[in-house]
Design goal:
It is a single chain. This protein is an alpha/beta fold. It contains seven helices and six strands, in the order ββαααβαβαβαβα. The chain has helices at 21-24, 30-44, 103-119, 136-143, 160-165, 182-187, 195-205, and strands at 2-7, 13-19, 123-126, 151-155, 172-176, 190-194. The chain has a six-stranded mixed beta sheet with strand order 2-1-3-6-4-5. A hairpin with a 5-residue loop joins β1 and β2 (13-19). The longest helix has 17 residues, at 103-119.
Amino acid sequence: MLKVKVKDLTNTDVSEIELPEEVFDYPLKEHLIYEAVKSFNASQRQGTASTKTRSEVSGSGKKLWKQKGTGRARMGAVRSPLWRKGGITFGPKPRDYSYDIPKKARRNAIKSVLSDKMRNERIYIVDQFSLTSLKTRDILNSLNNFNYDKLLIVDNRENSQLMLSTRNIQGVKAIDFKEMNIYDSLNFNYIMFSVDAVKQLVEVLK
């Protein structure tokens, strides 16, 4: 078990928490992280791009002129892809770009990222985010006690004051622990957990 300092919002040590090494001391597996990010990004694609084929564009299907004897190239219909306003050849059609990797691999990728940040002292554990107001200024004053540039805050969705008061802070994002994903864990240089959130996340990742 890893012993990690628990801080309050003034960045003062208040206690310690034990975290399992299988989650926060997992080896760095770059290829696993790559596959997880690739799967995440692919799943975000809408896949709604669409073009019309020659069977879908408007226009007559009548043969424009006889096959032989005119001196012109043979032509079957005005909807041919060779003509202006004709159909599109091999254009994009709606499709599903997403693909899955095993659930265990996805969880191990997140453990790999969290462990790397823990080794580099880029994870904070806070006893609780108890806010008295929705003012962005108040939470920003508390966060300024910590060293960070891009910060991901992980707590519970029920803490609406935290979720609402951090919306307008550049470089800061607050999420529920259930929303933890490989992209956010990599995109943000620092991660701040509440004690409750980190315990619940450990139960999911173990």
